[in-house]
Specification:
Helix content is 30%, strand content 26%. The C terminus is likely disordered.
Length: 280
């Protein structure tokens, strides 16, 4: 009986010691987490459109983000709210005081000038507005001729569904082939017209769009230094002739009765003629 009591006391003592050690270790771990894992340096990689400060402030966005371990666990294991202008993101712990944020930004396909706010509204591949600003970003075309008076940041452009779909299809196709124009104007019957400095490209309807862009990609190197209009609006798989209408510098007419069409010359050529030729 006495032995049994002694055995229970020893067991209880061991349990209490174990609990005390656990609590001490927990307190030590908490002390280390609070005092050592403090964000002092943040490196941002992969950003081209947005500066480091904006990305850092967007990622470290709550009252616990001063703790580097918390930030790592938050963006590794927790389903956090998506950052509107970032496609995917990785957070790496370099040291207890240093983090690296690697971002893959959403590509901007184009922008519309919104007169109501006096700024440009940039949109992504899904048609969501990812930025409103006065800056002009290189290789992102201006979209003109589409009615859009009001926008909400991080929401989809308030454009008719079919119109938006066609605009996104066109801008994605051009971006894929590295043919981003300076601007895209939607004119008669909503047919897109591309502007590349002194070159205008009439695409016509969205029918055969992929093939038209492929032909443009083949022809475009031969248009360097020229000024005029490339007509692709009538191109089909059966009709392969493409017209490039050269614009000629205006000359003062000797009389007011000079014909109007003297300022332009048209040349009709086949795709084969316009494709780049190998150097000899």
């Amino acid at each position: 009986m006495i032995r049994e009591k002694r055995r229970k006391k020893r067991l209880l003592k061991k349990i209490l010691i174990g609990i005390l050690i656990f609590l001490l270790l927990a307190l030590l771990a908490a002390f280390i987490v609070i005092k050592v894992f403090v964000v002092k340096e943040v490196k941002v990689e992969g950003n081209k459109l947005y500066d480091e400060q904006l990305i850092t402030e967007t990622v470290l966005n709550d009252k616990y983000s001063w703790n580097s371990l918390y930030v790592l666990l938050k963006y590794t294991f927790i389903d956090t709210e998506a950052v509107p202008f970032i496609d995917t993101m990785e957070v790496k712990l370099n040291s207890p005081q240093s983090l690296t944020i690697k971002v893959y930004e959403k590509g901007m396909l184009g922008y519309l000038y919104i007169s109501a706010i006096g700024e440009n509204a940039y949109f992504d591949k899904d048609g969501f507005v990812v930025e409103t600003s006065s800056r002009v970003i290189e290789n992102v075309p201006l979209i003109d001729g589409i009615s859009c008076d009001e926008i909400v940041l991080y929401e989809k452009l308030p454009i008719e569904k079919q119109e938006l779909k066609q605009m996104l299809t066109l801008t994605q196709t051009l971006k894929r082939d590295g043919l981003e124009p300076d601007s895209i104007h939607y004119g008669v019957e909503n047919a897109p017209v591309l502007q590349y400095k002194k070159i205008v490209v009439q695409l016509g309807s969205m029918e055969n769009l992929t093939q038209k862009v492929e032909r443009l990609h083949q022809i475009f190197p031969n248009l360097k230094g020229l000024k005029g209009t490339l007509h692709l609006e009538n191109w089909t798989e059966e009709t392969t002739n493409i017209v490039f209408e050269k614009a000629v510098k205006e000359e003062k007419p000797e009389s007011s009765e000079a014909p109007e069409d003297e300022n332009k010359e048209s040349s009709e050529t086949s795709e084969t003629d316009m494709e780049p030729q190998p150097e000899e």
